[in-house]
Structure prediction request, 514 residues.
Amino acid sequence: MKEKLTVIKVGGKIVEEPETLNQLLADFSAIEGYKVLVHGGGRSATKLAAQLGIESKMVNGRRITDAETLKVVTMVYGGLVNKNIVAGLQAKGVNAMGLTGADMNVIRSVKRPVKDVDYGFVGDVQQVNAELLGDLIRRGVVPVMAPLTHDGQGSMLNTNADTIAGETAKALAQLFDVTLVFCFEKKGVLSDENDDDSVIPVITPVEFKQYVEQGVIQGGMIPKLENSFSAIDAGVSQVVITLASAINGQGGTIIRG
Amino acid sequence: MKEKLTVIKVGGKIVEEPETLNQLLADFSAIEGYKVLVHGGGRSATKLAAQLGIESKMVNGRRITDAETLKVVTMVYGGLVNKNIVAGLQAKGVNAMGLTGADMNVIRSVKRPVKDVDYGFVGDVQQVNAELLGDLIRRGVVPVMAPLTHDGQGSMLNTNADTIAGETAKALAQLFDVTLVFCFEKKGVLSDENDDDSVIPVITPVEFKQYVEQGVIQGGMIPKLENSFSAIDAGVSQVVITLASAINGQGGTIIRG
Prediction:
């Protein structure tokens, strides 16, 4: 039987403010067993870019990453946010190691081809080095992954944190019994968007289809759930969508195959 | 017999300009055997600080590191410079891994006590985790170390790159036959400061004393050589002071015990 591993993705807001970061680090530290943290940092990147007079352009929620913006995200995601988390976890006795995809070639990606939109230095994940990650994890190391990859030709690439979490979870599912947790600003997937307590506890593929047909699940939640089912199809045991404050407890919406 | 390991420290200027960086990465890639790269990044930090309206204050060549400056150096050293080097080495087939002292608790330091000068968030190295570094190195990983450590209590600390290189070399001397190379803007230690070719090929402790008494070696070179002899005393086999372009060849000044 495979050992349990939890991959937790937290968005920028939570890790960018000292109070919520401290609470997250405490909650994350308390999670038993093997674990991986994947973080964002978009707000800090936008803030630094603005301070440097660089305009932040977003298309479909993704940052257009020109050469100057790539420097900004490499500094913010790989430096500021990542090292704050790593130092914070070390202080709590968690043997954290910050990683971008370039480090030990953990995640190689390819620069997104230009179609309707030129996203610039944005990477689509090609390969996750699961053996190497798994080996580190089994040795007690807790990877803290920044949303950056590399192209194998010397360039860093900006890569969506949800994608990093999903692809990492899929790759590690070869080696571990993986739960993927997406932290969210709501308690879970809601059946009534006006009622924060209307959390749907479990969603299966059949139910997902029904909810979409009924209009209960709509908008940006649809691709999020499609990604979740894609992870399940690739061997991830379950995906949980929940509040950051609930990563170590019960609650949220569980996505099952 | 211990296996050979080369620890190379390169200053900011070399790693901060694309052309010199590319040459350095090619030269570094060609070094045979186990190796570690330690880099600076001061010029980029000063530049980013200026862009953000933060004044760079230096005392005795060391950066006064207030909270805002700590953010700047964490971004520049741990993010921008480190990841550029790592991605560049990966493209050359070197399995580089970027590390700050916080990552896997590789180097823990203590915030420098305030005496005449309050250096702020500057760390004095307390402990280098040689076993862990040695283990990674033996597995083919090439550590690329940023001049940042952590205090074990959640804070990153700005730490001089020469010190990181020296302390890492000393710690790894327990496990390897270590050569420590300080890259320099001259061909080596000169016997005549007006003649760039007057490189002193070898300096022993007795000769060092004589050169200092004669005034041949003076100024900032004295602490650099004192640090080198301190590394030798701690078990490092030799220290080389040379041009960055000569790290893979002969030349420079060899410091021997």
